[in-house]
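sanity check this record:
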Amino acid sequence: MQLSDWTTWPVLAAATWVVVDLSMRFVALGVIPGRRKPSTGMAWLLLVLLNPVIGLLGFSFFGTNRVGRRRHDKIAQVNELIRSRTEDVPEPATASHFRPAVHGTVALNRQLGALPLLADNTIRFEPDYTAALAAMTRRVEAAQHYVDVEFYIAALDDETRPFFTALADAVQRGVTVRFLFDHIGSRGIPGHEHMVKFLDEAGIDWHAMLPIKPLKGKFRRPDLRNHRKLVVVDGQVGFTGSLNLTEPGYNKPKNHKAGRKWVELVVELEGPAVASLEAVFASDWWVETDEVLHVRHQGATGQVAALDGAISEVTTQLVPSGPGYPTDNTLRLFTSLMYAAERRLSITSPYFVPDESLLYAVTTAAQRGVEVELFVCEQADQFMVGHAQASYYRELLEAGVRIHLYPKPYVLHSKHFSVDDDVAVIGSSNMDPRSFALNYELSLVLFDDRAVTAMRGVEDTYRELSRELTLAAWESRPRRQKYLDNVFRLTSALQ
């Protein structure tokens, strides 16, 4: 071998790497922007251009929210089935009083989520964490036929034990109990393994949603989640909202040491809307188990109406969303209602990281004279999301949005907003890219001035406890914090 051979190989290797590097960047330019929001595409392209290997590797795992053809096809089938079985449901007479913009939102929800507008429901808000769990437990204790339970996070602990005991007792009475929880979301919570053992011993039919089991052929983008929270008892009473099935410190010693507790809002309901909740559960159950559940309205019992704070004859519509849907259902719902606001818009979200469309909807409302207020945590429980959220405060404040910081160490985890005096929305969805594109979510829209008044009462409590953020105070924060805010604002778009 000649000496020139040794000098040729390094040159050849370097030249080859240059060609490969340029090829990866070139291919990325033509592939990544496809069917993505410009901000998302630009964020991924920036990462690829900075380091093609790391960027493309990350994109291969996290660059798409596809959940697999089988799951996607089943969700499409469910939506068509719901649409066909409810196409003859007449529009309630109450809809004739809706403003045109609100009526348009109803049509949009029907198109995107398939579920119809339903009148004659009874609702009651429960802002107390322990009381919400107790209310669900009482309904399970009275169950006669079946109980359907679905939570993003579920764990057996001192706070949730009465609920799990009620489920086990129900099984002993011959009640069918079905239980769903997110595979990854629940595994990280202390008490998870104890819960699974309890479910098995109690004879409860349980399944993990979106499981990742490569050896069994179950693999997908690892950060997709089913973030829904709901309970249905005998088809007569339902619950949904922001509450996860765990104690208010999430069984984490660091939370207990800091005194950190989650603040939630749950809605209990009776009426035709319970069938909508059950239809969503049935679709998730079928996707995970291949078992078909038959959903039918069982009629109301008057149990909710007898409680303090209950509101009867409420018109509602349930809107499911998630990566199996072809459109961003929740984002479209939220922005449509925000553009419909004429006088007041009150938003509560623990993770407020808006994309361009949502940011414009909120700031445009404020700029055209709508009184807009935003309730967020003073101290975020997630470092990256907290900084990404903070990066939007200046734009919001300059537009005239009033920002109220709920005091630390509490985590204001409630997810709801109210528009003028006629629409309120409550559910599982945050206002961030994850909830809009990566999570399966659930939003209950309430078209009723009394429901808005009740929700405003909850918001008034938040306001009394919070401190208002001013632009001057925000601009005085350290430069290091400003830098981190901007960095994590960019990474929030990496979907």
